[in-house]
Write a structure and sequence with these properties.
8-stranded antiparallel β-sheet; Jelly Rolls; 2 domains; mainly beta
Amino acid sequence: MSFIMRPVRFAPTGYVVEGSALPDGDGYLARYAATNTTTRSSARIATINIVVKRVTISTRQFLLYQQANGNTENAIVLELDANDKLHFKLFQVDNSTARIERLTTQRFRDISAWMDIHIAFNTGLTTDECCRIHINGVEITAFDTKTNTDSARDHGFLNSSKPLYWFGNADSLPSYGYVARALIQDGVFGVPSDVGETTSDGFWQLKDASELTFGNNGVLLEDKTIATGTDKNVTGYSPGSVVFNGTPYITRGADLTSNADGNTGLISIWVKFGTDGSSEFLWGATTDNNEIQVYRRSDNKIWVLIQDTGNNGDLFLKTGETVTVSDGWTHLLISWDVSAGYSDIYIDDVQSSLSLDTTTSGGLDYTHSNHNFFASDSGDSGEIFNGEAADYWLTVNQARFELTTVSNRRKFITAGKTCVDLGSDGSTPTGTAPMIFFHLDRGEAPANFFANAGTGGACTLAAGSLTEGSDPNGRHFAPVGTILATNDSPTNGDA
């Protein structure tokens, strides 16, 4: 059975989508567990809206997917199935039985038509009103399968530690088509007129969605920013990140510009380890048997070793706590001043218990003929970082930076344990640019990460290549595979 939809018009005024995104067969978006929005606005009410145009039919195509906290249970599934029917399933928390299910009788096979899919649900209701589906402003009432909640129940959607996926999932990556907007309103039982309106000449015309209420864990992806996974509903700073797969690392090929031996140092870095039980370096250098080693050892603890100029003493730090894959994105903040016997490591804004020895007869030996980042001094394949990284900030010989002072830590990490904007050259926290600042803006080419915006001189990538990583704050979406911004834009006219 075919379903005749109102044609969609992307209004030339009021709401303009400047572009759309096109997954080309291997792309999807993933948002991992949020670190700063652990409480959703509602356990029962939400609205989903997505504007898509298909380019292929008779192929199962995921639109929205999230697994529940259990290993096998789902939280939500929204798809166009292999029969081209819209299929929506919403599950109880950690339960494999769908509490709301809708499978349309209608088939959606027009590859020239834009579809504004609007789904609102309330698992506190047991009648048909618990879930309403509209396509281009027209309510769908004919279903092959229709299941309502049998009693008021909480759903698992937006409350899971599992990734939230748009346009696919980690196991199924079919080709999709054009996507102009995708949004979730957490805690809102929305209506189609919130996102669109019927014009006097019979078109369904989209409206500006930016002023809607999105709740704690809501989402707004639209126009070309879909390709970068940028959620326009998210406020605050989120840097871009890169993925190291155990092959690439960054090297200086010389000493750092204006480097000198001394007593103080400060390191801030966001990391997400991809393996456990291996030595993975963040900074390595050696000259005349004097070493710099900043790394996570095979015991999964953070180690810092910097020897002095006379090889008679050193800075040696080892955390009592581990940092593992299961910790996800982690902020490391390390500060020392051996002239005053001071050293500190904070992991995610929590002071670490340290085993330490800061005895030295002279300044620390910072000056070396080469410095490697994300690898040991030798670049040994068994010591290269494997994981994701963002906003790597390192300097030496600035004034001592006391981490026990809360206001000092807030220059690098918020009270909510999210990223802080360090400035284009990293000078914002201390007023002086660091020697090393590896940074990306969201959507920026991953290769720009190793350019070094600090004062220590240019760096290069020693091997392999970097790819785009996830959001350290857990709010934006990470593109996985290829998602393109395309000029097949809704502004080209009526669809």
